[in-house]
Specification:
Elements: H1 2-9, E1 13-23, E2 39-42, H2 48-56, H3 63-66, H4 72-88, E3 92-99, E4 102-111, H5 113-119, E5 123-131, H6 138-150, E6 156-162, H7 166-174, E7 178-187
Parallel strand pairs: 5-6
Antiparallel strand pairs: 1-6, 1-7, 2-3, 3-4, 4-5
Helix pairs in contact: 2-4
Length: about 190
């Protein structure tokens, strides 16, 4: 709480706030049946151009776009490269949501090896996900797919959402996911 007062007085500004929710599929029941508004499947190599384009046009309210010192075109390419790296790494999981023959969302994440080494628990997260603004119902479809994919194994999955991503936060809260942490990103221009 002190940082909220001290950092702005010293030239920092709040660039974004990330909320992390957790899902424990082996212990979790959805509070209702989810109507499927799209299909979800594992990423395939030929999905990459569509996934990269969706990444380029998403995340427009995060720290790289609100910082007036950073070029928004470079931020778009940063996210396209990030999702490309995730999708090409076999140790990570990537899913796509499709509707009417086109990709309307993606979710990619990885196993936290440090948590597994220390606790023996499988914690999946630290990923990247995006949904087309015109595609309603994708977040619940990803949650349903995650429960089917990880259910019964004792895995824990983290889902991140920017504070400004109202739709994602609304879905996670309405489905009773537990808010596990809040992370603030502060920027200061030193140049």
């Amino acid at each position: 709480r002190t940082a909220l007062f001290c950092l702005p007085q010293n030239g920092f500004y709040l660039a974004d706030t990330l909320l992390t929710y957790i899902l424990k599929p082996g212990y979790y029941q959805l509070p209702c049946d989810l109507k499927s508004l799209c299909s979800v499947r594992h990423f395939q190599k030929n999905d990459l151009p569509e996934v990269m384009e969706l990444a380029r046009n998403s995340f427009l309210e995060n720290r790289f776009f609100v910082d007036p010192h950073l070029d928004p075109r470079r931020a778009k390419n940063f996210y396209a490269q990030w999702i490309k790296n995730y999708c090409e790494d076999q140790a990570r999981i990537a899913w796509v949501a499709r509707r009417k023959g086109r990709i309307v969302g993606f979710l990619a994440y990885e196993l936290n090896k440090e948590v597994r080494r220390i606790t023996g628990k499988q914690l999946w997260g630290h990923g990247l996900g995006a949904v087309s603004p015109s595609a309603k119902g994708v977040y619940p479809a990803f949650l349903s797919f995650a429960i089917k994919h990880h259910g019964g194994r004792g895995d824990i999955i983290e889902f991140d959402a920017l504070l400004t991503s109202i739709e994602a936060n609304r879905v996670y809260q309405s489905l009773n996911l537990r808010l596990a942490k809040t992370q603030y990103t502060w920027h200061q221009w030193l140049g």
